[in-house]
Amino acid sequence: MKHSLKKLFTYDRLFSKFLNYGIFSILMVMISFVALDDLYAEENDEKSTVFLAYDINALNDDDDLSTSKDILLQISNYFLLDSTKIVVLQGYGQTNFNPIILSRENLMQEVDSFFNAMISKKNLDASNHYLAISDGFTNIAENINISDSEFFLISPIKIKNLDESTQIKLNNLSELYSTSGIELNIMALPSSLVANREAFRKVSSNTNGKFIDFGTNKSYTDFIQFFFTNPKLFVETNLDSKPLSNFLNIPPTVEKLKIGIYRQDLETKISLISPDGTELREGSDFNFWELDKILFLDIISPDSGTWTIITTGQSGKFEVYTDVYNPLELKTFGEKIYPVSSEILLEVGVYLENTLSNISDAELQVRIKDFKGTETIQIMNDIGEKGDKTSFDGIYTAILPSVSEQSIIDIDYTLKWKDLSTTVEQKDQIKVENYPEISITKINDVSGKVGEEFLILSFETQVNSYPYLVGVEELNISLIDKKDSQNLIIKPIKLNDTEKSYIFEIYFDTQKKIDEVISLDLYLETTYLEKEFRTPTIKINSQINTNFLYIFGLRYYYSIIFLIIIISILLVVLNYFRKVNISGFLTDIDKNIIVDFSNIKRPILEKIIHPKRINFNNIINLPYNRGSFQFDNNQAFIIINPVKNDPSIRINSLPAVGKIKITNNEWIGSAGKQVRFVKEIPYMNI
Asked: Is the pTM of this model over 0.90?
């Protein structure tokens, strides 16, 4: 009995231990699951969201449906390569449907299931885009990290009533996205209306997002470039029946390669072949996928060598874009400017991740094309010989022959690996010139007085177009065929805090009259880069004319103008003093006024030459032609100069010729008419 109890107690203890361990294990598992859920939640919170809002109206049009599938799969495939991104897909119509989180491994199955679910919900009513964009923002905002998130609206953009209030609501939403740092991208499908496209284009631009109009010919080109950092158009052509092969060389230092291909014709067959001869297939180890109109390769650390793109198609647009990130760069090290006729030491730095690096398994060549078009090739070295200062420091060196003329030389660097046909190339230029140099800014042809200083030349001293300060003693100037009466003076333009200058003027003076071209030579002798240097001689010609006549200290033609002005003034003054008050009347026998001399209009020149005279031809009321009336003090005279066919003039019925006084009421008769001169207004019969 005791033994049985003992056994029972023993079993009881074992059972208790088992129970305790079991409960403990269950608790630990539960805690682990809770901890893992918390961990995953925290991990998801740290990820940014790519939200895809898919309008089920795209299912009503075959072209929209085909395009939208390519868009959806391209965006999903691309962003799912990034482990810091969550891709959420949500269908919407009048209402929003349940969102799903897409995975890289089961993307095609999840997308197929999504379309099957949406087909049962499709309708012809305009979808509620405002609700979809709002829900997308709410979903993105659930994560801690929203600044790197993006929203994509894939839709034919049909709107029931695009009025001002609708536009304001959409703009308010775009402001919310913009202030939160979320890009709102609109993918407008082919059936979208123009007015609706423009409304949503503004909404997208407010957030710095992309608006791609798939109703245009260049839509896929714009769409593919969206997934590149530095897109480069590699191929652009229209296909025909001939197969097309293109080759892309990838150096070993390339860290990332992207190839995006657009084919307009869905029947076009494309093969992507890696350098080891493997044809890429969707689902292979490479990040490669093939859609209806798009093929895309996105691979980190691609195989170096030649990648091949083989295309077989009959028609349609065909475009290939590439984006290659290669941290290796070739940069000219040191100066790019060399003196004429001097040895050219060319140094090139090979930078890998901005660090100088010696590439031991590659050869660096330099191709030189001079100003005559002659090309030469040299191997550059980094072994501390032939001008190279330090071995294996990443600075490669070559000594080029001297160049005898100022020129610009084209340089092509090519880094080529020994066992590969791939290269890294960099184009550059070097300049060969005389330096320092004299740059002529102005040459003057001058004229003036003997003994006057004439500014005939302005120039600057430069090094490679930058100012170079020199003293006057470093400038040499000489006058060709100089005469004792001639002199040259160099004047520097004064600069603060220095006795040197880089701007100079040259003045010329002569003590004799000359009219000739003077010639002078100018060059600079200076110490530059610790060496004595002399610029080439510059020859300058200037026309000097001091052979002028001067009157009263003015050049003769200025004096003539001055004399004309003086004479004109004197004539005006003289005429003023000669001025006579012309007045009086000619009346007929009935004392009617025929002529009022004070109202007779005369030419100005006649007034100046004959201020006291009025010619017959100025008086339209009389038949006389040749002659005049003259007024002197209180006396009046008639001067008769008869001409042929003129009516004869009689004074008091007697024939008259010459100058006759008419102040004493003499009768003047002609052609049967009688008039007399009176000083005052006569009494008129009414």
From this structure: no
